[in-house]
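Contributing new records

If you add data, match the layout below exactly. Sequence lines come first and carry their own label; structure lines follow with theirs. Keep one chain per record. Anything else will be rejected by the validation script.
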Amino acid sequence: MQRMQTRSADFRDAAVAASEQRLATIEAERGREFPDPALAGISYCLPAGGDASSVVKTLRLIIAARLILCVITLPGLLLIVNLYAMSDSKPTLDAQTVWLLALAYVVCSFGLILSSFGATRSLIARHIRGRMAAAGLAPLDRALSAELEEPGRIWSFGMMADDRGYIVFHKQERRVQIEGLTHRYMIRAEDVVKVIDSGRSRRDWIRVRYTVANGELTLILRPDNLTAALGKASRYSPPHPIHRRLAECLLPAKGE
């Protein structure tokens, strides 16, 4: 079985081509087209459709602004305090007022940083909901927001993940549906090759390898939340719900 982790324009290109070919074959065999590929009963990786370029650009601007705020907050605070301490002239503000201004500066900066996480999630949700509504697809129900990465990038720094979207867990059907900004994914339990937890020292990601037609695709999934963005979860912290719910959908229960 040939792996699909090739260094092409996109690490999913081979999986997309294989998925499209298999879907076309199934549609030809059954004599009908599927308005939603999830109805075909296969695992796949397909382009999401729609133009997400403007959303991606906006997300990059928000993330860049967040990084800038993170970088300048502490130096800005020190500058405010030092300008007051080093002033030779009679200060127009007393020390208490200066510290209150410094505190307000820090609170506002971190408030903007925290609000940016909600803004990015809202932007992604609005785009995906609009795309699915335009295609006549059912809205997402009880989904978890997540980031998807190419396995080779998990240890490297990047401004933005390869894809961001929502995971829907279909426990009864033993499948996981992922609706991303750029791609759509379906992972069925019978096609799973391996699920690897990030381990005790890193609780923020999970690796899933599954078959797509005649090949394999590996994805890194991690929760799109504040904990994952600001730092790696502590080895003492409990696993994120994404780990438990993925296991419930894709892995055989104990005793099977």
